[in-house]
Amino acid sequence: MFDATENDPISPAMRALLEVFSTDLSEVKFPDVDAEVLEEAASRVRAQAEAVAKAQAALEAARQALGESQEALLQKGQRALSYARVFAEEDEALSTKLETISLPKAARKGARPEGAVAAEAAQNEESAPRRRGRPPKSRPSAPLFADGSSPEALAAATEPAEVPVAARSAAA
Known about the structure:
Elements: H1 12-22, H2 35-87, H3 92-99, H4 114-127, H5 151-158, H6 165-171
């Protein structure tokens, strides 16, 4: 699940040390550390990192399910509150209780992707009645310095060029 560069839970320095122990020091054994021990420890780290990634994915899925359930409850609660307010029109005490309850606004039902919103806006523009009156003037969009020169280049071109002292003596 983890690649050797981007998502590897083992630091680059530790990977370099593992590489040294697997190549140059593969035959060397220190009292409780050698290439095999280091590689085994690195495998445990990678396995634990994978377990963490799976747990995070499960947590994210659970959070999304919780959010959807909360949204459904909020919509039902708003509906229940509306019905209760109509029902309590004749009962002033109940009506007062219900007026103190303020539920947040529900998120838009069936949120659409951005492309669908843009397509709908274009469709509304086409079906909307045309505006009356003169259309606004269009402004030219040519750059200020159309020939590509910058203000600094124009200033340098209009100022007299100063010849260095060494160049003057060589010319004389």
